[in-house]
Amino acid sequence: MVKKTNPKTSKPRRSGVHPSHGRRERRSAETRERLFRASLDLFARKGFTETKVEDITEAADVGKGTFFNYFPSKDHILLALARCSSRSWNRR
Asked: Nearest to residue 40, comparing CAs of 83, 66, 70, 77?
């Protein structure tokens, strides 16, 4: 496998990260993913209605306000899950 390098620095690129995305975009995607995964884990363990936004932000190690920067409500986590599932089914 040939590693691609960043032409500006000649350093190998991280796999899975688009070369035009900067640090801010990568960190934003990582935070969204942490919130999403923490939510799904808590929904599975405690149930959707018993899981509070505070539980999610604590598990994802972010502030409560950060949650609302990525998802307007807990319900939107389920919408994101539905979109992911839909894309998965469409690929088959």
From this structure: 77
Which residues fall within 8 angstroms of residue 91, CB to CB, at 6 or more apart? none
Half-sphere CA count of 45, side-chain side, radius 13 A: 11
Instruction: Name the domain count of the chain.
Output: 1
The answer to pTM > 0.85 is no
Range of the domain at 39: 23-91
pLDDT score at 85: 77
pLDDT digits (tens, 9 = 90+) for 23-61: 999 999 999 999 999 999 999 999 999 999 999 999 999
By three-state DSSP, how is residue 73 classified? coil
Distance CA 11, CA 5 (A): 5
Q: What are the residue ranges of helices labelled H in 47-91?
A: 53-60, 64-70, 75-91
The verdict on residue 46 lying in a domain is yes
